[in-house]
Structure formats: C-alpha cells, structure tokens
Amino acid sequence: MKKNNVIEMPLRKSVLWRDIVLMSLYPLLSAWVVQKLGGMTTDTTLQNFIMMAANWVWYFVTWLMVTKIERRSMAPYKIQEWALLWQLLLGIGLGVLIFFITFLMPALIQGRTILINPYPPRVTRGLMMFTLFNQFLFVGPIEELVYRGYLLDRCREATGSKWGSVLIMTCLFVLPHIVTSGFGIYLLSPMVLSLLTAVVRVKLKLGSIFALGIAHALANSLLTLCSIYLMMM
Predict the structure, then answer these.
(1) pTM of the complete model beyond 0.85
(2) Range with the lowest mean pLDDT among 24-28, 71-75, 217-221, 224-228?
(3) What gap in Å lies between CA 176 and CA 186, rounded to an integer?
(4) Are 146 and 62 a contacting pair, CB within 8 Å?
C-alpha cells in the first residue's frame, strides 16, 4: 500500500483489529489515571503537568505501535510541507465552524443571552496561556494523529469502508470523554469535532493532520475562552 510516498506492507485483519483495540485502550486508561492523579492534589500546576505528560506518553505509544510493532513509517502522519498556508486556513475555518456548531448554535437555538463576564478569575491569563500551549502543541496534534490519523486508517484497512471507519473511529473518540464527563450534552462537542474532522480528512486533500490539529486546538481553545469570559443567561 502506497501512502504519501511511503510503501507500507498490508497487515492481516486480525492484526489490524488487535492494534485498534490496543490503541483504543490507552486513552481510556489515561483518562481514568489523569482523573485519579489530578484529584490527589489541589496544585493546578501539577494537574496541568499530569495532563501534558499523558499526551507525551500517548505520542510515544503511537510511535512504538507504528514503528516497532507494525514495522511501518510515521511519515503519513507528519506535517506535509506543500500548501501549508492553505492547510492552516482550512484548520482555522474548520475550528471556527466546530466552535459555532457546538457552542454558539445551541445557545442561539435555545434563545439564551450571551453576556461578557465582568469578573473573570485572577488566574485567567495563566489558564489561557496553558490552554493555548497545551492545545496547539499537544492535545490537538496528538489526538488528531491518533484518531483521524492512525485509528481512522487502521479501521479503513480492517473494514474496507470509508464511512464505516469514520463511525467506528468516532465511537472510539467519544469513549474517553464518557469516562471524564459521563453521558450528557457534553458529548455533543467531541462527537461533532470527530465527525467533521474525519469527513474533511477523508474527502479533502488539504485535510492533513496539521490542518485538523489546528482545528481541534482552536475549537477547544475558543470553548475555554468563552467559559472564562462569557456568561449565558
């Protein structure tokens, strides 16, 4: 199989499903561990470090799976140097669209009034700096690499179905959010994000991991920004 100028040997379906299951277990375990460790301290700096460390380990686990266990290349998931500006613009536009669908549109449909919060917490600047740093360097790129990169590709190989792989991968993406937030309206955001980014990756040549990482990070950052500076009545 040739992908992004890298020739990769096909894997047996049993191996593909094994690796899909193994790669899906880490975020579930990670979400549980981060919650447990974070709950053991009130130090927000330490809690933030725990969250970032989980993403560092996640990237290493992905690299280990691809290069050492499957004997494949990470090249398909690296930044593609062509049309970087267009990839960036696509990522920004997609991130704004995800934010609109998951935050602004539900508020408008419900007829809620959005007001500026006159008393943001003192830690606002630090929280936003951490959010931007964590989202754009870790959460967005790594989650897109794992889900819309690795897992979407492996599901597509295993099922032979473009849209079946999108649905399976989206279910796998939502599961860790159930661990952290439970069932409820909070699942709308990860579900919409996963479906839109997966469709873009499947349908558009510009839908690279870089573009999707920007979209993911921007949508999450805008949600955090609004949770600090806005109030809904």
Answers:
(1) yes
(2) 224-228
(3) 12
(4) yes
As given in the structure block, the two tokens for residue 209 are: 């991991």
pLDDT, tens digit, 9 for 90 and up, residues 25-61: 999 999 888 888 888 888 888 888 998 999 999 999 9
Q: Cite the DSSP H helix spans in the chain.
A: 13-39, 44-63, 84-99, 105-109, 124-134, 140-144, 152-159, 162-181, 188-203, 209-229
pLDDT in tens, 86-113: 999 999 999 999 999 998 888 888 877 7
Phi, psi of 174 (to 5 degrees): -75, -30
Contact 23, 146 (CB under 8 A): yes
